[in-house]
């Protein structure tokens, strides 16, 4: 297994150049806090991994630990179009790691049935943009399976992974962030990691969680972020936001790939004397309102940012809830820095995205109010 | 070289169109008079099982008529009968193993009845009382039972088809000697999930049996507006799935076809389509008046000529396994039993209001607990306005 890991890592080195074409971001090593991490093994070793290898490692651990678990989707058998399932078919066999016919509603429907008889299904939707054909299965079936049967049946052992978000040149259908659609559905969990360490820990937690989970992976970070990822089996708890940086003047909330931009904006703000508290929401549903509430009570100001369009984006939910809970603490209107209410554009991506400068301006605006 | 390239020829001047209609054979064992079509053969279904199925078919029909009337009286909110399709439920159920996992549409409660669901269980679900499956959360007729291997019904059509395939795949991998059985109507077969499920079942070699109840109508839509091919079963050719078409009013034929299909599916890890041709003699549901879109004679003709109960009854009487007197006694007794279950279900209390917030997740998230608290505080202010109907 170890030999195999180095084999495909070498392979990746060779292909990195090619892959960078697909990833617009070339970010340095991610800083992280491992305070929330729950280790289930006493392996303290770490290894440099990007998000692809971290996810691959999580899937390998999940497949090893649970003999009923299967990994499947479109083009998964040869390693996946993003290489997240590299080597898994070879290691676990074509019954457990396999290609599914090109049909998203089938992938999720099949996974629900597999999970509903108590086995672990890890399904992949090739791009989050193509999860909508499975919307009915996710919203009407997976989310309500336990509730409608009075708790007799459940498809809790279901996890749907999908790459999401801007990638530089993804246009309409290789760039979307659909988390808000799912956030309106009781019964689902929606999880979005920001770096390789979180990706592995949150994915393992999602696979083992007894509820259907939509796990959205920031594809721009698949190869662009690298971190020292623990080699062992560990989980990062779901439903918990993480305070990435402490600060006193303004609370900044984001998730997934957006956290990286928020960090940069925080640095810029710091240079002009504004102390930002940065929170990675991590789980979009059910979300951790309390952590944000406590932060805003302290700072009195809130900026929420996501790539998805502004209207009815998840920032709206956060803004409304925090306004209800922290009305007397708020010293400025809550700022939402989001994608515009347009389909994700190709040539204007740079102008469309809620980038560091837009966030920086929002931080200044909220301070000057 | 690929085999299809080897076989290909240059395109002739006139494009040759393949035949589109197969007119698959319809398998019948008992004719309308209750006689064996092939008098030389012996039915696979044991006489005791035939008798038992017939008795259950009577029970089903009685339950349907009482619960249908209960809805008309406003005692339950909704109901769907299985009139005309009793042989589909009991013929298949009798041929399956009790551990075969059922994923049904909604017009197959007979399968549950065969497996041991009682009048009381049905009535409790329809009333949404404390003992009903699903804690009163779903509409009537959305039955389910973990103990009886029958997944909870949901309203969205055809969603259960890929579920059954996934479950069958799980059984195959864990080498459990059981199959998944998926029931659907011919209308549901037009949904995308039908295509998704069948193609997946074929490519993953899943031991799953698709039982298609082709009853002529999807609410008001007749077959001719639903498809233009030769029904549902021959679609199996396109997917590489074996299929058979059976007279769905003929209990013996349904039983035998199901039995053979199950064996084939289990032994070969392959899906099978079983299309059962029948007629929906009842309305689509209590929210439907079917005489607005189909002639009354058509309904009465089918009731007279193709009634699945009548056919079995004639067979049983011919073989002196049953009599008209026994028939009357059974109907009277079961009517009383069902009415009693209805009255008991009606008097049972509803599940506690706190259950509205349970089972959304395995554990209650903080935000949902807060909403529950808000509800309790509100109700405490206006207790008379929020009494739960019993």
From TrEMBL, chain A:
Q: Which Pfam families match?
A: Transket_pyr, Transketolase_C
Q: Which CDD domains match?
A: TPP_PYR_E1-PDHc-beta_like
Reaction catalysed?
N(6)-[(R)-lipoyl]-L-lysyl-[protein] + 3-methyl-2-oxobutanoate + H(+) = N(6)-[(R)-S(8)-2-methylpropanoyldihydrolipoyl]-L-lysyl-[protein] + CO2
Domain Transketolase-like pyrimidine-binding: residue ranges: 49-224
**Which UniProt keywords are present, listed alphabetically?**
Mitochondrion, Oxidoreductase, Transit peptide
Task: Tell me the domain of life.
Answer: Eukaryota
Look up the record and name the cofactor or cofactors this protein needs.
thiamine diphosphate
Entry's Gene Ontology molecular function annotations:
branched-chain 2-oxo acid dehydrogenase activity
Q: What is this protein called?
A: 3-methyl-2-oxobutanoate dehydrogenase (2-methylpropanoyl-transferring)
- Source organism (scientific name): Albugo candida
From TrEMBL, chain B:
Where is it chiefly localized? mitochondrion
Q: Which terms does the UniProt entry file under GO BP?
A: branched-chain amino acid catabolic process
What does the record give as EC number? 1.2.4.4
Q: Give GO cellular component annotations, separated by semicolons.
A: mitochondrial matrix
Q: Where is the Dehydrogenase E1 component domain?
A: 55-351
- Annotated Pfam families: E1_dh
Q: Which UniProt keywords apply?
A: Metal-binding, Mitochondrion, Oxidoreductase, Potassium, Thiamine pyrophosphate, Transit peptide
Q: What class of enzyme is it?
A: oxidoreductase
Q: Where in the cell is it found?
A: Mitochondrion matrix
Molecular function GO terms recorded: branched-chain 2-oxo acid dehydrogenase activity; metal ion binding
**Catalysis performed (reactions):** N(6)-[(R)-lipoyl]-L-lysyl-[protein] + 3-methyl-2-oxobutanoate + H(+) = N(6)-[(R)-S(8)-2-methylpropanoyldihydrolipoyl]-L-lysyl-[protein] + CO2
Listed cofactors: thiamine diphosphate
Say if the entry is tagged with keyword Ribosomal protein.
no
- What does the UniProt function comment say about this protein? The branched-chain alpha-keto dehydrogenase complex catalyzes the overall conversion of alpha-keto acids to acyl-CoA and CO(2). It contains multiple copies of three enzymatic components: branched-chain alpha-keto acid decarboxylase (E1), lipoamide acyltransferase (E2) and lipoamide dehydrogenase (E3).
Tell me its family.
Answer: Belongs to the BCKDHA family.
What is this protein identified as? 2-oxoisovalerate dehydrogenase subunit alpha
Query: What does UniProt list as this organism's lineage?
Result: Eukaryota, Sar, Stramenopiles, Oomycota, Peronosporomycetes
């Amino acid at each position: 297994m170890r030999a195999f890991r180095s084999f495909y890592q070498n392979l990746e080195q060779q292909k990195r150049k090619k892959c960078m074409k697909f990833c617009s971001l070339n970010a340095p090593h991610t800083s992280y806090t491992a305070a929330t991490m729950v280790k289930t093994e006493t392996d303290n070793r770490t290894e440099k991994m990007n998000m692809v290898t971290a996810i691959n490692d999580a899937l390998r651990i999940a497949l090893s630990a649970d003999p009923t678990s299967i990994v499947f989707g479109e083009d998964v058998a040869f390693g996946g179009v993003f290489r997240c399932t590299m080597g898994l078919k070879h290691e676990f066999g074509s019954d457990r790691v396999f290609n599914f016919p090109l049909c998203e509603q089938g992938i999720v429907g099949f996974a629900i049935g597999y999970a509903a008889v108590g086995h672990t299904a890890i399904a992949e939707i090739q791009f989050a943009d193509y999860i909508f054909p499975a919307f009915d299965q996710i919203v009407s079936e997976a989310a309500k399976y336990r509730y409608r049967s009075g708790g007799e049946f459940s498809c809790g052992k279901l996890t749907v992974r999908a790459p999401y978000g801007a990638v530089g040149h993804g246009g309409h259908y290789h760039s979307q962030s659909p988390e808000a659609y799912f956030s309106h559905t009781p019964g689902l969990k929606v999880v979005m990691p920001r770096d390789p360490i979180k990706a592995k820990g949150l994915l393992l937690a999602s696979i083992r969680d007894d509820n259907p989970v939509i796990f959205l992976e920031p594809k721009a970070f698949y190869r662009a972020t690298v971190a020292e990822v623990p080699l062992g089996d560990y989980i990062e708890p779901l439903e918990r936001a993480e305070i990435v940086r402490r600060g006193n003047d303004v609370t900044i909330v984001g998730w997934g790939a957006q956290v990286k931009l928020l960090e940069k904006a925080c640095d810029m703000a710091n240079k002009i004397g504004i102390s930002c508290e940065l929170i990675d929401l991590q789980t979009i549903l059910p979300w951790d309102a309390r952590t944000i509430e406590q932060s805003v009570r302290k700072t009195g100001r809130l900026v929420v940012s996501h790539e998805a369009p502004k209207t009815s984006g998840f920032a709206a939910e956060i803004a409304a809830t925090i306004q209800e809970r922290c009305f007397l603490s708020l010293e400025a209107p809550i700022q939402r820095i989001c994608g515009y209410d347009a389909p994700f554009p190709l040539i204007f991506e740079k102008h469309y995205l809620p980038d560091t400068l837009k966030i920086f301006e929002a931080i200044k605006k909220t301070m000057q109010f | 070289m690929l085999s299809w390239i080897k076989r290909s020829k240059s395109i002739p001047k006139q494009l040759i169109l393949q035949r589109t209609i197969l007119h698959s054979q319809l398998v019948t064992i008992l004719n309308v008079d209750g006689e064996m079509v092939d008098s030389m053969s012996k039915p696979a279904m044991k006489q005791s099982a035939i008798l038992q199925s017939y008795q259950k078919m009577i029970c089903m029909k009685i339950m349907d008529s009482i619960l249908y009337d209960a809805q008309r009286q406003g005692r339950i909110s909704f109901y769907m009968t299985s009139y005309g399709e009793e042989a589909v439920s009991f013929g298949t159920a009798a041929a399956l193993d009790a551990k075969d996992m059922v994923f049904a549409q909604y017009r197959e409660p007979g399968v549950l009845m065969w497996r041991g669901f009682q009048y009381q269980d049905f009535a409790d679900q329809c009333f949404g009382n404390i003992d009903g499956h699903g804690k009163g959360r779903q509409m009537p007729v959305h039955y389910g039972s973990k103990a009886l291997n029958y997944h909870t019904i949901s309203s969205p059509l055809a969603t259960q088809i890929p579920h059954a395939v996934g479950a069958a795949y799980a059984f195959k991998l864990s080498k459990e000697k059981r199959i998944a059985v998926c029931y659907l109507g011919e209308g549901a077969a037009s949904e995308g999930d039908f295509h998704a499920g069948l193609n997946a079942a074929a490519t993953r070699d899943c031991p799953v049996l698709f039982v298609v109840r082709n009853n002529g109508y999807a609410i008001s839509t007749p077959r001719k507006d639903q498809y233009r091919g030769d029904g549902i079963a021959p679609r199996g050719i396109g997917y590489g799935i074996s299929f058979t078409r059976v007279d769905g009013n003929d209990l013996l034929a349904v039983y035998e076809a199901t039995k053979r299909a199950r064996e084939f599916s289990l032994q070969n890890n392959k899906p099978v389509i079983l299309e059962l041709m029948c007629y929906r003699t009842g309305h689509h549901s209590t929210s439907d008046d079917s005489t607005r879109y189909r002639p009354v004679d058509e309904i009465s003709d089918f009731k007279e000529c193709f009634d699945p109960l009548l056919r079995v009854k004639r067979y049983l009487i011919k073989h002196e396994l049953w009599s008209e007197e026994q028939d009357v006694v059974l109907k009277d007794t079961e009517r009383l039993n069902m009415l009693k279950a209805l009255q008991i279900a009606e008097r049972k209390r509803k599940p506690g209001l706190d259950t509205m917030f349970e089972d959304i997740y395995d554990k209650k998230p903080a935000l949902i607990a807060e909403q529950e608290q808000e509800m309790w505080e509100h109700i405490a202010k206006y207790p008379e306005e929020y009494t739960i109907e019993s």
